[in-house]
Automatic annotation (TrEMBL), chains A, B:
EC number, as in UniProt: 3.1.3.5
Taxonomic placement: Bacteria, Pseudomonadati, Bacteroidota, Flavobacteriia, Flavobacteriales
Protein name: 5'-nucleotidase SurE
Source taxon at top rank: Bacteria
Limits of the Survival protein SurE-like phosphatase/nucleotidase domain: 6-192
Ligand binding (a divalent metal cation): D11, D12, S42, N99
Species whose genome carries this gene: Flavobacterium terrae
Gene3D superfamilies for this protein: Survival protein SurE-like phosphatase/nucleotidase
Length: 255, 255
């Protein structure tokens, strides 16, 4: 294979240490183009910009090793505009992240990181979302660099199953503490939300969404189990949301 | 069953004719509370508000038949804050829509309407998203009212399979032209994006996302087939995104 063309994006914005790490890894493997949000987009899910305009700005110098653009839109917008307006072709691979914070279990649904990966998958581009279970801006990405590189190379070598992208989550551990990589299913867990009610300086009530992650899924084949037990989790993710197993039951209804 | 407590929301905002229609239908079946965005949220996917605050405003008069709140957040935020701060309990049912525009096929991923329905499903609330294949603000919802009511009543009677919500799409047809209801799978279709590049009054380039919906999935079991052939489509939708069929293949990799 010639040097692959790799699109790198994320949801924490182009200046986040996580994407800088991912760019460093991708540079060792292929030709890298970065199109990432100009501001943080956490929790954006699979939002796209339909009622507003998009701006892109090339921020790398001409002749730089890596070409970088910021985009005013969401992570999914970044992938769409990268393919259609910047590259004018499909890249060989799309990498999203490395997110500051886990996107395991139900987080996949809220995640801007994974929405970029899924958008690339919809476009037929092999695609991986990476996340580290550490929300800190100063999270240590060093321990996971070799693992990320290995996963990327294996995707390039083997190819991904059709209409499947990877959701890779790294535990917050030292390199020697990481036990390996497990292929997993998404744990059936969710948030118990709490809203923190406050009063503005002008006397008006407002809320902050917060909450606690609750996992009652004890399965040892889940991403949550893997992460808790020192493994890197890889969940194959699909964008056919049909609950095929429910079709037969619904066909018995009186509609 | 006592009169069910029904939460109604949408993504086109609380003043859209589609939600007003859905409120009218829901009133015939149960006690209705409305918590809907204060501004249009189309294309918001499963976005939630994590880096900003949320405001809610009660807009109905005390003693009104239906209690209505606007929320400054996304459709998923509306469901979270309705359950946790307004109702302080799970409603018996969540209805989202009726969206002005189809949410069939891959649109389910970008849809704010469906993200509200899915969020309710995650919370364990039986939930249905409704959409009409007509983007017009003046779309005619009359032909579909009886069908929507029938579907809601059947969900209340039969219950939904666990971790499944319904994505209901209505064709843009006269009542006598609608042939019936089909349980479907999500068609494997996507958008061929185009970006419309323009120049601002200040000389800066900007883009509008547009594009054409392309369906190469000829399956007669798909939502697209049903809608094109005069049927209402119901796709059971799940939020376990695991591509379970891919796990075995990935386990053969050298990781």
């Amino acid at each position: 294979m010639n040097k692959p063309l790799i699109l790198v994006t994320n949801d924490d914005s182009i200046v986040a240490p996580g994407i800088r790490t991912l760019i460093d890894i991708a540079k060792q493997i292929g030709t890298v183009i970065v199109v990432a949000p100009d501001s943080p987009q956490s929790g954006m899910g699979h939002a796209i910009t339909v009622n507003n305009t998009l701006q892109i700005n090339k921020i790398s110098e001409d002749g730089s090793e890596v070409t970088e653009y910021t985009c005013s839109g969401t992570p999914a917008d970044c992938v769409k505009i990268a393919k259609n307006e910047i590259l004018k072709q499909k890249p060989d691979l799309c990498l999203s992240g490395i997110n500051h914070g886990s996107n395991s279990s139900i987080n996949v649904i809220y995640s801007g990181t994974m929405s970029a990966a899924v958008e690339a998958g919809i476009e037929g581009i092999p695609s991986i979302g990476f996340s580290l279970a550490d929300f800190s801006w100063k999270a240590d990405f060093e321990p996971i660099k070799d693992y990320a590189k290995k996963i990327i190379e294996e995707v390039l070598n083997k190819g991904l199953p059709q209409n499947v992208v990877l959701n890779v989550n790294f535990p917050k551990l030292k390199k020697e503490e990481i036990k390996g990589i497990k292929i997993c299913r998404q744990a059936n867990a969710k948030y118990e939300e709490k809203f923190d009610k406050r009063i503005s300086p002008f006397g008006k009530e407002y809320y902050w969404l917060s909450g606690e992650f609750v996992n009652n899924d004890k399965g040892e084949d889940t991403d949550e189990w893997a992460l808790k037990n020192g493994y890197i989790s890889i969940v194959p993710v699909q964008f056919d949301l049909t609950a095929h197993h429910a079709i037969q039951q619904l066909n018995t209804w009186n509609l």
